[in-house]
Design a protein that fits this description.
Blueprint lengths: L1 H37 L2 H14 L3 H13 L3 H8 L9 H13 L3 H14 L3 H13 L3 H14 L5 E4 L6 E4 H16 L5 H14 L4 H17 L1
Antiparallel strand pairs: 1-2
Helix pairs in contact: 1-2, 2-3, 3-4, 3-5, 4-5, 5-6, 6-7, 7-8, 7-9, 8-9, 9-10, 10-11
Keywords: Signal
Protein name: Tetratricopeptide repeat protein
Organism: Gelidibacter salicanalis
Amino acid sequence: MKKLILLVVVMSSLSITAQTKTELQKHFEGYYKQMKKQGDIQGVINAMTHLDVIAPTQARKDTLAYIYVSEGRNMEALNTIGIEKSGTDSDLNTEIKAIALNALGERARALEFYKVLYAKKPTPSIAYEIADLMLQTGDLAGAKEKVEYGLANVTDEMRRTYYETQQPYQTSLKAGLLYLKAIVTYSEDKDANQEIALATLNRALAIDPNFNMAKISKEALLTRKKGTD
């Protein structure tokens, strides 16, 4: 009899726990929708964190990490999904790791994840990121190859965001790739290729006269040219 009573109590307790968990999940799913509707990013993060605690899934972790990285909270993004590379990682998971590691100055590690994305589905935008990282790590031949792929496949509608100014801005991805091509060309031989690099920067600026990175690079090359004349 005592065993039967104990079993009933345990089963009742499990039922109440399951019911409470279901109610909490519904609550935070509703809370998530409301915060998203209001544009409250921290509210969205709080709701997604609670949902992942109640019913953890990799998709929820990836979504939470994506929100973090979109807000520039790169370390929090990596703390959410880790920095290990796995064959089961989703494309979103891989992209988050690449973006966050690059933003944190871990260029070689970021490059690994961008290469994974490129191997799955090469695009001009990923080619740009790889070329930029290769340029920074001294792989001029690799950077040149990716720039040429990007220029061969880019469309006029494609854009890229830059963050070197106080206010981030977008410009044509084609202009961005031409800017990278100029930097790669100049880096290959600073004296022999200076005029070619300037001409390439002018092509980028013809697409977008307000492209700040291209303007800065052009001014630097013109200053150097004056100093060597």
